[in-house]
Amino acid sequence: MNRDALRRALENADLTAYQAKAYLTLIDNGRLSAVDVAEKATIPTSQIYKTLRSLEGMGFIEIIEQDTLHAEPRDLTAVQSQLRKRGALLSDAADELEERWTRPTANEHRVSVVKHAETVIERVRDRLSEVAVSAELSVTMEQLITLGPDLMAAAERGVVVHVSVYDDDDVTQRCRDADLLDSPIEIRVASIPGPFLAILDRRSTYFTPNDRADETYGVLIEDEILSFINHWYFRTCLWDVSPTVDAVPSGRMTYLSLEEFLRDIGPLYHQGATISVTIVGCTGKSDRTNTVHGEISGLFYPGVLEGIESPSLGQLSTFSTVFIDTDETRYSVGSWGAVFEDIEALTIRIDDIVFPSQPSTDGTERSEIAGTRADDS
Description:
Elements: H1 3-12, H2 17-29, E1 32-33, H3 34-41, H4 45-57, E2 61-65, E3 69-73, H5 77-84, H6 88-100, E4 111-114, H7 117-128, E5 134-139, H8 141-156, E6 160-166, H9 171-177, E7 186-190, E8 196-200, E9 204-208, E10 218-222, H10 224-239, E11 254-255, H11 258-270, E12 274-283, E13 289-300, H12 313-316, E14 321-325, E15 330-334, E16 343-355, E17 365-366
Helix pairs in contact: 1-2, 1-6, 2-3, 2-4, 3-4, 5-6
């Protein structure tokens, strides 16, 4: 079916000529500004905003408020349903639309605002299939159940997933019923309700306010600096102060925050423990990741010279460095945005902790803390 036939089919499904032309243009091109839609679809500029608003009201497209008004097609369910009610010709048109339509990919805009909160949830679900390193989320129990399969799939392929769930009457049982407690996901319970927030691979942030907000909207952020700010909100307000649901997942303990790692491991290191870790991080100014295995050989942070073994997150927000000795060399490891260190840590996994004062078969006693908090060891 050619484009003209497809346009006529849309008009037969109660779309005006302008609506059909504008919708087809968005299907073929993805997200466009209103001016670009008018130009590509040959619609008068005086009519384009009214046309796009009407398509949004029909559930066919999403309006994005940026410096200028943009639009992109929504899921095809609404338009396909309307088309298929009109018989064989319109059913063929719906199938053709499905072949032509592809979900818009992340664009060059760093910050976008959408009208519908569900658009943010859908975008997070799509992005979770692409996440490579980390995912930090604050969600309601219902949102966790909705995203659960996608989060588990990400965790099972090695992504470190930390989820803060807003307090529910029986969050532990509901997590157990959803098989989330048997997954590699670490879940904590936040006592104060807050927004939906997802920070993926340190570069993408997705936000919607909670139910008490005056209006619904969503914010899509593709920016590392703004994601860093949201990461610290997540760590200080939702993660560090919240208890873990039931138990930490089985397996070796992995951190997404160098600061949290230092708070837990500092007392053990200063007591003389030998701590073996695996660090995945970026080297230099490139996005290329590198994996380093070795033993902690030094810690440097505010107060270390005064004998402070477990510094606060506030102190660590200024500077913090971990030194690691491998078989070949010594690396300095910094936190998010590291400038002077050799490696910017993305994940830190504790492989082993050895206390040399207690004998075992090889002269030391190994005290692995996999599955437990370090300060409980």
